[in-house]
Amino acid sequence: MSAVAAPAAVTIPAPRPSAEADVLPGLYVPDSRQWLSTSSGRVAPEGYSWMQAVHWVAGSGLYEPRRHRSHGPRSFGPTTVFVAQLLAELSPCRPGIEYLMRRSGLSERAVEYHLQMLRETGLLVWELRGTRVSGEQAQASVYVQMLPTEFDVALGIRTAGEGTARRMTGIAEAGRELMARLAKKASRRVRRPRSKTSSKAPSKGARRGADGASATAVSGGARCTPMGGSSSSVFTAGTTYSPPESKLASGASKSPTPKTSKAKAGRRTLNRVGRRYQLARELTEELDWLRGCSVPRIAWVIRHIADAGWTTTDVHAWLAFRGEAARVRRASGLLATLLKDAENILDTPAKRDLARDQWRAGQEAARREHIQQVRARQERFEGDWQAPTSRTVQRQVDAAFAAVREAASGRPPTANGQFLAGGEEAPELHGGLADLDEDEVARARAEARQCLALGDTGLIEVAIAAMGPEAAEQLYGPKLLRRAKQLAGGFHSTHMTLGYR
Fold it and tell me: What is the pTM of this model?
């Protein structure tokens, strides 16, 4: 073994932590040096070179999280490598916690743990730390992918420049073989770690890496590192390929190998439990009296109809047939009562189709009836004139129209000189009003006084609009007309209140 290879062999342990790793210096970056301005590492040129450093940290065993805290993950394992792989796809590296939770299937605390481990190993530093202000939208942190100084020392990488902008200019002969192995790992895509309850057998075509993660090849072509010359066919000479910004979509760099479309591969079908939860979630969103209910509990209540293949439209049709309560105290219990034996009554698709058609027909009939009611209400309140409801006023209106027709025909009007009850002299009635006798005029004025006593001026206002002011004054008298005008003017004043006692 040469003198140059000896330090590298001592510094780089086996992929698995061994007893010799205890005497080696630990890999740990304090909080104060986890920023781009205070980091001692150098910026990774692209995600591929950064993943080589990630696999080196995972296989070296120099970093043990439990040395610095008593909680969280116990080692830098496959899950941390998978999270790093998600970060390597982003340019700029500005991931949100919710994005990493959705892609990795981890909890919020677990994602924070793995991000902290990447920062403590010097692989990730903050360029801009995110903010969480109450009442405002949370801002994601902006990270920079770094290559730790320990990585350069262990592989004998020579750099030029100053600070974090240092660039690679060469590599020791002893580090080429290790760099080639790291290049193989970086060219494979680490799969999402399986849960403990899933099958432990690897999928067809998958291979186990040195860190225990299941990996498949991402690209069949050769990948290059910044340094040319290698003893392996995979680690070949060449320059680093960095795709332009125009080729990036949503911050993720595309792989040169075309991926199979999800539409061609087929969508994932829900199992029986998933179908129950899907139907329960749809019902809690569409039914007002089910809003706020627990989705797992509603899924248990509707398990029978969900297994029978019911849809939300089928449930609406069945509830319309059974009827709904106006006041609901316990929504899940009411739903269980209404859906009792529903799957046995509508046990065939034909019966459910018939129920849906009847429900849709009822909905359409109710919609048309509502439209007619709205139109009738608008015509009643927005029309120019409304027919009076009092029979006496109706006769007076008919008489007024008859008088107009007589005047148009050239017939002279008639008058009488009778006296009314109460000592009031009957005015001279013209046109159709002359045909009214004393009792009818007295009843009309008594009805008008009663309406004015209750604050209702509609009777006299209709008479004025239909017969004219002169004919209305002949029928009801000047006092009642003056009283009606006073009440009508008082409606617009804030100092008068009219109503029933």
Answer: 0.39
